[in-house]
Structures
1.
Amino acid sequence: RFTILHTNDEHSELIPYGPAIDYPAHPTTGGFDRVAHEIARIKAEKAAAGEPVLTLSGGDFSQGTLFAWLETSAAAELSLMQAVGYDAVALGNHEMELGPAYRAAALNAAKANGVTLPILCANIDFDETDPADDALEALFSETDKQGTELAIQRYTIKTLPNGLKVGIFGLLGVEAEAVAPAAAPVKFGNVAGNPMDPVSFINRVLVAQEMVDTLRAAGCQVVVALSHSGTREETELPKWVTGIDVIVGGHSHDLNYPPLTVGGTIIVQAGSYTSHLGVLELEYGGGKVSVRSARAIEMNDSIPVHPGVEAAIDAYKAALNGALGFDILAPYAETDVQGDGGFYVNDGPPFVETNLGDLIADSYLQTARALNPAEPPILGFEANGVIRSNIPPGAEGRFSFYDLYRSLPLGGSPYDPTKMGYPLVSFYLFGQEIWGILNATLDMDDNQFFVQIAGGEYKFRPAGPEFDQADPASGKVDYLLVGGSPLNPAGLYKVATNFYTASFLALFGVRPRNASGAQVDIGETRVDGDPITPGIQEVKCWEALAGYVKNMPDLDGDGLRNVAPAYRYTRARITTPDWYLAEGATAGGMETYVLVQNPGDSDVHARIKFQTGSGEVSPTDLQDVVIPAHSRRTFPVNAWVRSYDVSTLVQPISPRGAQLVCERAMYGDGWRWAHDSTGVTGPYEPAPEWYFAEGCTGGDMETWLLVQNPYGSTIHVDIAFQTGSGEVVAPEDLKDVPIPARSRRTFFVNSWVDSYDVSIMVEALDGNVICERAMYGGGRTWATDSKGTSVLSDQWYLAEGATAGGMETYVLVQNPGDDPVHVN
């Protein structure tokens, strides 16, 4: 028997966060000081039971917070890993983010601080003719140093106290190498110019099989792949490589617990940012490894910190305070205005505009304009992959400089390595190039490349066709407006963006241009923060963001600058024509119909998917349906899915600019009752907040809340109720409720409140959702339904109403605020 403890993608998260300014007075998550406590506790328990423990990291231990600034001096991350007894660490793409010379300096600093950990990567390949990687190659060892000296190794072998021999090899994946262009001239197996060529993955397969064979020949009974490849590649690898018992993964930030199993290979990942510690209890017998128990321990407030590790981290904090000249955890700004608690500045969900994306893109555009008013850029861009963390309101709606920096913590400059962070760049592109890049990034179907924008707006069809340079009508983008005007393909537009993001232009055959349209080197496009001083004085992207926030006014007179309340919501810069219908049920005698209208002059191709309580259903015959011009089609949902929880997503595919109208009708109990609602679409919905004035749980009436999450990541919501007495009912079990990716959850309001007057409030904490409310009464002899509203207003109009002929009409008015409101 033996146990593997593991983390991955720690990204320099040494202290608890969410936000860090709240620690220790308020709830936070993560922190290496908590991970260290649990490692020490579990190791002590296992030692008492005579069971050996291996402690591993799946890579990307660096780059993510201000503590990464200490890599070439104190080597905080590796020093702490050494102190708590890690046995091996994989090399991740972010370890190569600043190039081989920087990584060599960081590892040499770790050696100087007494670190002897093996850094594993079996597929690292140095260039024998280019001296740029010589310093890193000097740290490479073909032989296993057995933890006596820090070295980059292909593998290490651990003989456990119970005699079990475990071989561990490292592997850096295809996608991970593709997003680390600064690693050159070091290579890891990708096909030059086309990393997605299948040969890139085959190269990993060959290396992995060679490692398995080598370790088995050395007498290893157990083989572990310490992989920084992501779940997709890690679940594919065992289909091609025989003999891997366990894959301890990383890169995709997934929480793969319970473990995945492919062909007998056990595959785990422990989230990211020290949010969890993976505990994989294993047994070896009969030549096979089996799971005895597996769990991921969440690093929340219930986990104490390790006193010794916390003391070391305090010293690192003091070093950063000294270097910057201020307290990195002191209040820097707030989203709170006059005690309203503030709001989330989110970096998700994937493939949508986010308010953090708006804030960052705006900061680039405004900073570059201020520094070059004679030749200002007109557009600002940033890719989601560079935006690393949201800014939650925490307990008081405040955040520190440390918290803000976590949003843009990556990289450095090959031109000026004296300060961490990617520099801001500004250059020209032809409109046709911008159009092609935008379409190409959408075709990649990779959220890391999804583009946030300032100074313009675009609409795209997620289900649209791929872009073809030879066909101007192809692609997912419907339109791109710049300053309110359509993009001119032949026009030159000056843009501001991140150096790292701009470095990927080469993937699309594009290079930066000057005002004359001539191509220039990217180094010449760096924004100069001090034109008077000779040379280019780089402005780091995090400096642009911090400066933009620093210049915001103090709106409530508490001495702290406020993030403009307009950033509470997205700015409708990125939209889709998709329709969402949260309500639907096809079980228990209920019928659901989706009605799709095409009022246009051309046929529209569309895709229909259903999101249920157990995930998404995508019927093959609904992935390209035709809605003829000037027609209506009806889709009986019962024909494709049976569930009490069914939401619907309708996505136009083509032609460009296609517009549909969607409604949903429901019938139950032999058509004894029915209700209906239009769907949700448009620039401001899905939304982070939803309100329902109507609701009743007294007098045999039922009220149901339906919450749809159409996105690829879990979204958490808070649900509260308001009653006629002015009481706000906020049940503890309705706080931070997860709505899993591409699913629907149903909440029976009667379970929490009993009142004739019930209004509902839903707040999505880390993204957008769609909400509806259904009501039933009279023993389900009648039913009503309505989508909610995502905005508050001082004027409301209700077209329907009748008070004659035995009819009754009720107007329901909800006030979700903290003060009384007078109405006429």
2.
Amino acid sequence: MSERINPKSKIQNLKYLALWLLILILAFAWRAQNLDAFGLSNDEGAHVMWAKLAMDGYPLYSQTYAVQLPLFLETVALAFRLAGPALQAGRWAILPSFGLLALALSWLAYRSGGWAAALTALLLITLSPLSFTFSRLVMAEVPATALAVVSVALMFGYLEQKRKIWLVASGLALGLSFIVKPLNPFVAAPIGLLLVISNQKSVMGGQWSVVSGRLLWWSLGLIIPLAAVLLLYDPAALYDQLVRFRNDLRAAIPGSTVETWDQFKLFFNSHWGFWLLAFGGIMAAVWRVWPEKEQGSRGAGEQGREFSPHRLIASSLLYPFIWLVWLIAGIVMLYWHTPLFPHHFIVLLPPLILLGAELVSQGLGAGVQGSGFRVQGSEDSGLRPALSLSNGSPVSGHWPPIVGVIFIIIAAFNLPAMIAANQSTAAIVTGGREAEALKLLRAVSAPADFVMGDSQLLIFMADRRTPPPLGDVALVAIKAGRQTSERMIQLTEQFQVPVVVQWSLRLPWLPEYLAWVQANYLAQRVWDNDHIIYFGRRLAPDETIPNERQVRLGNSLMLRGYQIEDKAKAGSALNLKVYWQTDTALTEDYTIFTQLLNSQGALATSWDSQPLSGYFPTSQWPAGEIVTDMVQLPLPADLSPGDYTLITGMYRLETLERLRASDGSDFVTLTTVRIE
């Protein structure tokens, strides 16, 4: 049974709970601003694209090349199925993981230091720029870390309840974290330490079978998600994309101590207040040893036993000791990790925050400690609640409050920079060249087209897809030899890509591919040297034109064929590709009309535009080249079902004079369309 210490009234606890919920709601509201904005991370584009492809029926790994674990991607794909493939839907699918992380951290902090620690943990995870930025993006770091923290919290639940289901649940949570992103394997260090401490009598007696048995229960939970992944997906493809790919990265980008240290400095500079609070928390815990040791020695004569080192760890030092082991293990893992990026440092936030909460609970928490809990009695557990001695006596007077207050005041100077950085992130909206690029992409490609490029987020936001085998055109993948010019050219040709996007400073690392694109696309829109969209794909000489024909318009123009992309349904758009060619360079810009006529020859609907919505006017058409125009013919919702005649042609906008076909008519009949 749990035994309460430092009891507080229900009303007081409800007040603190209400305050905690208010802070959490405000944290969500802060993060929920402008969730449809163009992102700050190139990786996010790959994630939403892989999820969209999975939603569209291209299975992960076997058809869709993806270097992220499936639980993360399938969760985003599920959000797309429920709410549509929109960036906001993907980001809202990730945002609740921030709530899970905040809840788990607050619960652990509350166990250690009461409400003061719990509220501190919530405030710190809310204010962290890393947490703020990556809880708003379709990135795996926050969900994976949240599940890892839950795993530690469930282990504490086992220590209190002594039921094996808690062990299995702890292992299961860490296993789920691994199949989101295996970023927190070092969490096994504090979990293993807790398992040993909870069985210290068996360990000291050499009875390792007891510990091994409980470790097996924990491992069972860990293995279940991993085994499910192997059963549900192609193991060979998983190995290639998730294991060999990482090995290729390490071989191509071995990293260096200088580069690793630079990344650590970046994290320290943005979160130095967290480090200061954590250091203060460690000092407060060390300071707390001496009164306990002294009182434990005095109690030895009365109780007939000494206050041994393992009981010292299991008393008020248990929590800060676990947090410190957690932090050290995380630092070691990040030092080994390569390539190392800023978002990887999210894994250090939980132990830093919990150590900082220790300091605040000692320095300010006398009035807001709430209730601590004793661990359920066990002959070999030896565990005691934080903030109490091995005999249950409260610790008091050993940490000078002024010292803790000084640490907290100095750390608070880091907050304005954090808040400013977060507000700057939240204020970002999609505008300028990105808005122009999205409009162009929708105009020069059809919804069913596959688009190539180094900004998959831009392509996704335009409601287009990349070829499923593409993977991510990341710089690390290029350096590792996973993305080559030859492979990019082959995919561009195989999927007859109408548009290539150069946007994220990656295609210049594939100069042969970029030169090929420039030679095989007829038009381009240039914002600057780093932001270019190529369109107007040059058809190969042996490429078959759908519904090919040769109908001349005027003196130089010729209609060469057409292709209807999807079924015609009232209330939607009829997506149509029309193939044109000119014998000589044109000096005039003609407007193309596309019309649907009913059985009486009356106009039912029409689309008038210069080629590719004006982005590739006829005066820019090269002589002899076949130009593919994209038509999105709107079909009114009240359009009656039946057969309609689809016609097209060209005219001079100034005079509305149509070009005559070779048979004397002023339009070309393409086909009969049935409206459903």
